[in-house]
Amino acid sequence: MSLSARLSAIDARIADAARLAGRDPAGITRIVVTKFHPASLVHELHALGVRDVGENRQQELTAKRAEAALDGLRWHFIGQAQTNKAAAIRRSADAVHSVDRVKLADALHGAADDDDVLDVLVQVNLTDDTGRGGVAPADVERLAEHVLTLPSLRLRGVMGVAPLDENPAPAFERLHGIAAAVRALEPDATWISAGMTGDFAEAIAAGATHLRIGSAITGPRPGRG
Ligand SMILES: *Cc1c(COP(=O)(O)O)cnc(C)c1O
Fold first, then answer.
1. N or C: which end of the chain has fewer CB within 10 A?
2. What pLDDT sits at residue 206?
3. Domains (ranges, CATH) in the chain?
């Protein structure tokens, strides 16, 4: 299947899942995760109409954005971020989905230029493994409140990755409840970034607004299988 056919097939499945959930597909943003693929793939995707791409490593984001500075293209940073990479991430990302601690929020804010505002999401750890990235559900509101004190960051919502060892549906339901608590603090925090190649239909059923889909669209990642 060609890239164009894979993209259309996924978009059809997104539309089906949305209808099944009684949702308007237009309310769902499909981010194509291009990590490990060359910038040429981003050019191809852009030519096919893709306007949202995702990267999970700062160096790759920075390099690829320089090679594919395309009209209307939005870059989403979705990976775990070291504080010392915050300034570089801020320079290259239009949205950061993975704010999971006060120090990282402060570093992103500290790297702001003038009146520049960055869209950010609080990443929630939906597993019991503290190494997997994301803030524990019990600490989400405290972190969200901190982000709301930083004028160069615009809190847009929450992000989550389903656990590997659990049905994704209940995990995404937990994320949906946490998203509502964050929206009570900030009405504009309407994004729920959830759902990947293997679980985007479950994420849509649980209210996801931003899907992060890689391999089903791009094919296997080079050197990663
Ligand atoms: C790689 C990645 C994705 C996309 O994964 P696929 O299974 O290839 O769709 C989504 N979210 C995050 C955080 C990722 O790192």
1. C
2. 98
3. 3-218 (3.20.20.10)
